[in-house]
Design brief:
By secondary structure, the protein is an alpha/beta fold. The mean pLDDT is 91.
Length: 228
Amino acid sequence: MKTYIVIGGSRGIGLSLVNLLLENNNKVINISRNKPDLSHDNLTHHSANVLKDELPEVASCDGLVYCPGSINLKPVARLKLDEFREDYEINVIGAVKAIQAYLPRLKSGQNPSIVLFSTVAVKLGMPFHASVAAAKAGVEGLTKSLGAELAPTVRVNAIAPTVTDTDLASKLLRNDKMMENITERHPLKKFLKPDEVANMAAFLLSENASSLSGQIFEMDCGIVSFKI
């Protein structure tokens, strides 16, 4: 039985991942502002704001997944500098804080792994994504740098999903017409479900991914260009 820390596991992809890890007989320590709507003997919850609060100490850790993110879509002329800072804080600084807090435990874990989250917008150059794409580009740089620095002890990878049906993306999927438009813009004629992304995260945590580090795994449903 392994122990995984999931930061932001109260909803969306994080909650799907918590459920999946528990189903596979792992211990999960969830850290989020809100308690997830589930109960399990192997689940421990700590209420905390990753940017403002001290992170709880843990006795052991075999993997760390940092789920918090943002989708702040505006023309660049309407984006305030503070919005760029806020997106960078939640996506990059929060991840760094978590990694620094739990790295000593990870280094003594079983095949330890860190999983972060980017977005396909970094690669594709999507309009109105300047702030979130800039922040997630920082996540990708962090992933590649730490993948080299922490090898061979700790693996570090990131997942870059396209639109995923979560609360965070609710504005993009708020009616049938918008869902149809999003679906049609993907060659596979779909957008992602949280469970699909959670399965990729669980794979990257597992022994089956023991040769993968410093990589960005795009889950893009086949898109090569994207316009809103």
